[in-house]
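Input chain follows. Return structure tokens only.
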Amino acid sequence: LALRTSFPHTTGKLSVYDDSVPRAFVLLRNPLRAIPAYFDAVYEMRNHLPAGTSSTKQHAKSTHDAWVQWRDGQLRSQILLYR
């Protein structure tokens, strides 16, 4: 069984199939890479862009400006939420 997630679920509820998974590997990514990657995925979904296009030169300026605004607005609330 393989599962990829880009963000933790704030409710902390287990999945309906949690009893059928006896063991698991937990792989943690470096937050310095994972957080910007999560932002890119959200940015692409909100702007109806194909996956992976927010890091291209064509979108670099708008993505960077949106990243700075999102980062500054979300950092404090996310740290408090997952403390």
